[in-house]
Amino acid sequence: MKKKVVVGLSGGVDSSVAAYLLQEQGYEVIALFMKNWHDETVTLSNECPWLEDSNDAMIVADKLGIPFQTVDLSVEYKDRIVDYMFAEYQKGRTPNPDVLCNREIKFDVFMDIALSLGADYVATGHYCRTDIQVNADGKSVHRLLSGSDVNKDQSYFLCQLTQEQLSKVLFPIGELQKSEVREIAAEQDLITADKKDSQGLCFIGKVSLPDFLQQKLSAKQGDIIEISESNEAYSQTQETFATQKDSLLYHSTKRRYQISDGKRVGAHQGAHFFTKGQRKGLGVGGTPEPLFIIDTDVEENVVYTGQGKQHPGLLRRGLLVAQDEVHWVRDDLKIVLGETLAVQARIRYRQPLEKATLYNEKEGLFVLFDNPQTAISEGQFVAWYADEELLGSGVIS
């Protein structure tokens, strides 16, 4: 008897080829399209309108001869993703809707629907891989591995998945290059073969973030303050601290600024509309080097900036993940209090993996990088790896 797979058919080329490959591998394939967003008033373009995507997905399903159905998850999406985003931005944090969408929607709500239809597996068009290995305790574990196409690897977006979820997912294009995926789509005459990849927020598309946030967060004028490099004091090295804990706390604590630390260079319409590391949208010119946002203070409604990508205010070696925000994909490899683990880590999608060390302390899990990282942002996810395997992740405090 054929195994049944429900594929999340998004209307893009990746999920289209995933469905085709599953069919070729002998699975009984059912296509479901997730409708998660209705409000098109905040989109900047027609790059990701749900109706066009739904039509393309339906045409692909018809071409492949597989059942097609649309499921409306807009209520769950608003409750779990959109409302969370508003709350995080209001606190001056920077959420990652793509990671949340995978954890809360695709591999939770959507997976439950798929399994209720009698599916053995759920499949998506993500560029990542899985396998099963026997660990040191003799137990079988599911590994989440980077996609073979290093330029498209999407394992970071799946960093919150569990062993139970991994046991029920398939990633058919994980071994392929993007160029190979498009070739297969063209060979099979799929309508999505040359379709551009969607951009912007998961299931919403390319949006003006201030316009999107202004649905609930009010505009409020405040000061833009420039902090000169001479006002920074990041010269201490690990050797200057009395204890390892002091070093971890120092390198992982973000610098707190005051208006008196710098000079006023402009005005903004709301600190919660800006994120650390952002360069565009400030409307301030005339500086020798471009201004980058090094911090925001949503309580005082102040945006702090510094000149150039190498401004010390953008750089930090460490970060902290609260204990209740630490997630291990490989629960069997988690470290106990007082233990350390050498890993490779990234704090954003497509960032090259960087050498780091995990320190499990009472205050939380510290991640100390060998080299300073740019624009470590509270609310984003840090993910840690052992070579190509993603071991765990957490929300940056």
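Above is the first protein from milestone M3; the second protein from the same milestone is given next.
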Amino acid sequence: MSTISVQEIQRNPADFLHRVAAGEAILVLDGQRAVAEVKPLGARPAGQCPWGLAAGEFTVPDDFDVPLPDDVLNDFEGR
């Protein structure tokens, strides 16, 4: 696996992405510390996913759209 520094990516991001798109997996280093592994996406399956693939796996509860309690809303809003 190849390595590249964050600074090298900043200098030429297009070259970095072209290397990945060509199939190269690259380890990204910030100084001496590995921070990410970037690799090309796998081939996508042809066609669309079939409808109903997970039918019956989940049932929406009757209280799904009931407003949240005030204490939970306060937590979300940072109060």
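Note on the second protein: The helical segments are 6-11, 13-21, 70-76.
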